[in-house]
Design a protein that fits this description.
alpha/beta; 4-stranded mixed sheet; 574 residues; binds flavin-adenine dinucleotide; Flavocytochrome C3, Chain A, domain 1; 6-stranded mixed sheet
């Protein structure tokens, strides 16, 4: 079936919905999502969305920009960080006017709390900058955007799994996939295609990400012969529930929670004397693992405690109801009485599809744009987060750069001719599905996927080194060789999750390979990328972005200089 639109947005998280809502002002727009749109990972965002409103204490966008750049370990493009910090207050007011029910302070202003790495007066002390809706911030923003999109006539194609971008005369002119409910192909024809497919936390065994975060957008870009940028920078959030990876938001520490090692010590005082438990995530994740390696984990095990007892039952129920409830559900514990076992969990990709500040996808490091193709949200690398993202800076990135992407599209599609679809649009998808359904191979998707996830968790995690990365790369090559021998136990076309997972596994392997390769090439430590064999930041050689391409002879790296700006690199002290 061929669906005709002006704009198709692949991904229905906050980035996709915001782009769609902006573009629908003057275009026929569709959002496509492999899960029901309202189940996109954005709904899981708990803690907040950053903007220097100054509702609780003095704050300025310049301070927010400084924190973003310093938090990024100076790898952010400063023009992008400036846009983010400057536009954030207005973006919050726009959300408020759409009906997002922000939590309020005693003066009925939008309430704000502290969050990791956000400071006043260029690093002096923590500042209250995170706006929030108790601990359901993503859910509330998604609900408002979804309602608006429906009201304005954005078409929703739920449970459609995109497999291929379509090009004609070097313009992106659509995308092809299939309907998960029926297995039937679906082709979308448009003047503009947006990738808003989120992250790829599922390449790790322990992750805070939902099941849909398998990096499909990254793989679609690689298929289109596009490079991926800065993929070595994978954020591990310090407080995942031990063994499960489910996130306990930084909001818990903002409200007074503290981390304790097995000796009961508040160890962050030693690693970050000013910000303590609200230091950036890369620093806290490394501190936790250091304590564990020095046998100061709880009972000699590989976790520490998050102690929320000081917050009090009433505040926990009022400000952190979601967290309190899932700690009870998953651990059977009452956080007002008992400490929570936590360890770092894979959380966010700083890297992604190279994109300029207006959402255009860049074809290579020299920066020519690919007409008709745009990217926004976690799958895009603008690059505003550099080597490490600050908490609450993703949601504001989705809103600001989602809107800018929608505006570029509105301007550009007026004069863009819709190129005819390539003739083989449907058959690409049909062939892919048929070859898997007809395969009699004896490899199983779940086995290969688990091997990949364990490998990434063991060898390309918070700490990495040349030896483990070389080994991981060789193992990924072996897993890739086994992939064509995958056979499915179910041959049905109706909601065949095994088929879906086989297709996702192919994407995950390719994204993992680029991640490990990028990490191997960057011989320094910066932000979330810590090489124990190159433990220092090396600004002379490595103040540049990594670009990795898939070529017929294997992966190939290139580098692109940063867009520098007003803040010169300093040593990061917190
Ligand atoms: C548990 C958790 C808590 C977080 N809390 C915060 C927070 O408090 N503050 C903050 O700033 N950030 C937070 N983050 C980060 C932030 O929520 C994410 O980075 C952000 O929501 C990603 O949004 P997105 O729109 O880019 O993609 P997502 O919301 O991940 O949506 C991706 C969309 O793409 C679709 N898709 C993917 N592949 C395909 C395909 N092949 N075909 C069709 N559709 C496809 C999916 O179905 C989905 O609709 C949190 C993240 C997690 C995991």
């Amino acid at each position: 079936m061929i669906n005709e639109y002006d704009v198709v947005v692949i991904g229905g998280g906050i980035a996709g919905l915001y782009t769609a809502l902006t573009a629908v002002e003057n275009a026929k727009v569709a959002v496509i999502s492999k899960v029901h749109v309202t189940r996109s990972h954005s709904v899981a965002a708990q803690g907040g969305i950053a903007a220097s409103l100054g509702n609780e204490e003095e704050d300025h966008w310049e301070w927010h920009m400084y924190d973003t750049v310093k938090g990024s370990d100076y790898l952010a493009d400063q023009n992008a960080a400036e846009i983010l910090a400057k536009d954030a207050p207005n973006a919050i007011y726009t959300l408020e006017h759409m009906g997002v029910p922000f939590s309020r302070n005693a003066e009925s202003k939008i309430e704000q709390r502290r969050f990791g790495g956000h400071t006043k007066n260029f690093g002096e002390a923590p500042v209250k900058r995170a706006c929030y809706i108790s601990d359901r911030t993503g859910r509330a923003i998604m609900d408002a955007l979804y309602d608006r999109c429906l009201q304005k006539g954005v078409a929703m194609h739920n449970e459609v799994f995109i497999q291929q971008l379509l090009f004609a005369l070097n313009n992106c002119c659509g995308a092809a996939g299939y309907d998960l409910a029926t297995g039937k192909p679906q082709v979308f024809h448009a003047k503009a295609v947006v990738l808003a497919t989120g992250g790829c936390g599922k390449i790790y065994k322990t992750t805070s990400n939902g099941f849909a975060s398998t990096g499909d957008g990254f793989a679609l870009a690689l298929d289109a012969l596009l490079p991926l940028e800065d993929m070595e920078f994978v954020q591990f959030h310090p407080t995942g529930i031990y063994g499960l990876g489910i996130l306990i938001s930084e909001a818990a520490r903002a409200e007074g929670g503290v981390l304790r090692n097995g000796l009961g010590e508040r160890f962050m005082e030693r690693y970050a004397p000013t910000l303590k438990d609200l230091a950036p995530r890369d620093i806290i994740s490394r501190a936790i693992l250091k304590e564990i390696s020095e046998s100061k984990g709880v009972d000699g095990k590989d976790y520490v405690y998050l102690d929320l007892r000081g917050i009090g039952k009433e505040s926990l129920n009022h400000k952190l109801p979601e967290i309190t409830s899932f700690i009870k559900t998953y651990l059977g514990l009452d956080p007002s009485e008992t400490q929570i076992p936590v360890a770092p969990t894979c959380h966010y990709m700083m890297g992604g599809i190279p994109t300029d500040v207006d959402g255009h996808v860049l074809a290579d490091k020299a920066g020519p744009i690919l007409p008709g193709l745009y990217a926004a949200g976690e799958c895009a690398c603008v690059s505003v987060h550099g080597a490490n993202r600050l908490g609450c800076n993703s949601l504001i990135d989705l809103v600001i750069f989602g809107r800018r992407t929608g505006l570029s599209i509105l301007k550009e599609i007026r004069t863009r001719i819709c190129q005819p679809l390539p003739v083989q649009a449907e058959s690409i998808v049909i062939d892919k599905i048929n070859s898997l359904l007809e395969s009699h191979g004896n490899e199983r998707v779940a086995v290969l996927r688990e091997s990949l996830q364990c490998l990434m968790t063991e060898e390309c995690s918070v700490y990495r080194n040349g030896q483990t990365l070389e080994h991981a790369l060789a193992q990924i090559h072996l897993l890739k060789k086994r992939l064509p021998n995958v056979g499915l136990t179910s041959k049905s076309r109706i909601f065949n999750y095994e088929l879906q997972e086989a297709l996702e596994l192919n994407n995950m392997l390719r994204v993992a390979e680029v991640t490990v390769y990028s990490a191997l090439m960057r011989r320094e430590s910066r932000g979330a990328h810590f090489r124990s064999d190159y433990p220092n930041r090396n600004d002379e050689e490595w103040l540049k972005h990594t670009f990795v391409d898939e070529t017929p002879t294997g992966l190939k790296e290139n580098y692109k200089p940063l867009a520098s700006g007003r803040f010169a690199p300093e040593k990061r002290r917190y």
